[in-house]
Amino acid sequence: MSAVAPHAVILIRALRFRPNPATAADNAFQAEVAEGESPDTTAFKALAEMDALATALRDVGVVVHVFEDEDHTRPDSVFPNNWLSTHAGGTVAVYPMYASNRRHERRADVLEMLKASYRVQAIVDYSGLEPDGIFLEGTGAMVLDPISRVAYVARSHRADTNVLERFCTDFSYEPMVFDAVDSGGVPVYHTNVMATIGTDVALVALEMIPDARRRAEVRERLSVNGRRIVELSERQVREFAGNAVELAGRWPDGRRRTVMAMSARAKASLTDAQIALIEESCEIVAVEIPTIELAGGSVRCMIAGVHLDPRPAREPELTEAVEAIADEPETMDGAEAASELPLVSSLE
Questions:
Q1: Distance of CA 97 to CAs 101, 120, 272, Å?
Q2: What are the boundaries of the region Disordered (predicted)?
Q3: Which CATH number do you get for residue 21?
Q4: Which among 283, 326, 299, 261 is positioned nearest to 114, based on CA atoms?
Q5: What is the DSSP string of 239-260?
Q6: Domain hosting residue 189, numbered range
Q7: φ, ψ for residue 81, nearest 5 deg
Q8: Closest CA to 5 of 240, 199, 226, 143
């Protein structure tokens, strides 16, 4: 199993998707729905894009767990990586969210599926920090390098450094915090729109780190183990080229394969030389998701990776393991859900 690339993923099939007005103020990547387009049309188009991503990942041998969400009050639930991450060794983290209407995206049924199908030893829940105005939006706010044990974080109010320090202590990471801004001086709201870390290659917009010394330090740490760096421009970041994710799939004969999942828009922004460098270590899987990208996130945001060991008795059934659980999705609000989740260890 790759330390970086998960062999399975969780996708949320959000039936009532729409760009979230509660996050538009600080997410410069969000865009308006076409004038005159009905909410039903937007939701229908987004649903087709979610299904296309699930199919594309399954076609390359990635195990995909899909949960449906019919709740119209959770417009961003298609982005589960902000509230959930899993880690080798059997630990799951649950995170505090900035936007109040995103906090009830946390779902007990997702955690129950993980416990039933994978070896989960502990769930560390940081969501109790929300009433204090302290937020760390998962692998959106952090881009993790499990090889060098570094957590790269662009400073923002969605990535509180105090809870980041707690996370790094709990999960044995070293924090590397930096400022990142666009050409207008607007801070990058989530680190994972400007950086992707794979096993042998990293895509990162170093030019968006204004401090030259810090920029050099980030470059050095990313490449210390021989990893090649694909330097992205701000224009490519705005096309979501930084919002990709390396995954572990399988060929039909069972051999392992490594893929880099991204949107078709992101791939189209890359140069031939950049694509060639990425494909030296993994094949690119690109999917059209223009409707979902209106919400300010792309393929990486849609994927919560599963870095857990399967339970041996259930391994042949992994692709169907979620079906019975997902039939009746939980609808608890975030704080209630977090407090009632089994095996949750809450930090005060």
A1: 9, 23, 37
A2: 320-348
A3: 3.75.10.10
A4: 326
A5: TTTT--EEEEEE-TTS-EEEEE
A6: 8-346
A7: -65, -10
A8: 199
Q: What is the pLDDT of residues 238-248, one digit of tens each?
A: 999 999 999 99
- In a domain, residue 196? The reply is yes
- State which H helix or E strand residue 263 sits in: strand 256-263
Does residue 304 form part of some domain? yes
Question: Residues in the chain, how many?
Answer: 348
Q: Among the residues of the chain, which ranges form H helices?
A: 39-59, 108-117, 138-141, 161-171, 212-223, 234-238, 264-269, 272-278, 290-293, 299-302, 323-326, 334-340
Nearest to 344 by CA among 21, 83, 11: 83
**Three-state secondary-structure class, residue 111:** helix
Q: Is the pLDDT of residue 339 over 50?
A: no
How far apart, in whole angstroms, are the C-alpha atoms of residue 159 and residue 175? 11
Phi then psi for residue 77, to 5 deg, are -65, -15
Q: What pTM value is reported for the model? A: 0.89
Report the Cα–Cα distance between both ends of the chain, in Å, rounded.
34
Q: How far apart are CA 266 and CA 236, in angstroms?
A: 7
Collect contacts of 21-28 with beta carbons under 8 A, ≥24 apart. 22/99, 22/100, 22/101, 22/102, 23/76, 23/98, 23/99, 23/102, 23/295, 23/296, 24/296, 26/156, 26/157, 26/158, 26/187, 26/189, 27/189, 27/296, 28/182, 28/186, 28/189, 28/296
What is the count of structural domains for the chain?
A: 1
Which residue matches tokens 């105005």? 133
Neighbours of 109 (CB within 10 A): 19
